[in-house]
């Protein structure tokens, strides 16, 4: 326990980076996921094909491989960025595939009559998707999106492998100095568990409120 208390500043700084990485990555993934979802349910065949290819590609590639490729491959073609920014972009693009799949399942759960009514009112495809379909679809996928957020939080620990000093990297550095892996990594694990528990609590509250509105 003393190993953790003596290095609280390092753990705190790592936790802040993890929270920043989680929040920024999820926000980016949500934006890209919405776009991919719109492409997958679009009446244009080419857009549907691109959206499907995106989801299939990122769901079948390991995140660590993508992180390593971005860090070591992009500089070879003249693209250089901060390690944290690189990690945020890669994780966001990766998790966007899962958000898009969750949102598509929500869109499919919306009655076809809703879309027909929107078209009858003169709404375009994008307008009906934005104002009619997606708001209803979101109500059905609150829990899956919460699970994706939790999985994303855990996946941010892979950023330590490319040099981002997050909570996992901070725990590893402290362990190299103190050589007490059990209390150090148990403490880091509890911090991740606390983030997941908070996300689960918020998700549950949102889901109950939206179900009541329905």
Note the topology.
Blueprint: H1 2-5, H2 8-40, H3 45-59, H4 63-73, H5 83-109, H6 112-120, H7 125-140, H8 142-155, H9 167-178, H10 181-213
Tell me what the structure shows.
With 214 residues, the protein is an all-alpha fold. Helix content is 81%, strand content 0%. Helix 2 packs across helix 5 (83-109), helix 8 (142-155) packs antiparallel against helix 10 and helix 9 runs antiparallel to helix 10 (181-213). The termini are far apart.
- Largest sheet, described in full? none
Supply the number of helical segments: 10
How far the N terminus sits from the C terminus, by CA atoms, comes to: 48 Å
Radius of gyration: 20 Å
Quick structural gist:
The chain has 214 residues and is an all-alpha fold. Helices cover 81% and strands 0% of the residues.
Brief descriptors of the model:
214 residues, mainly alpha
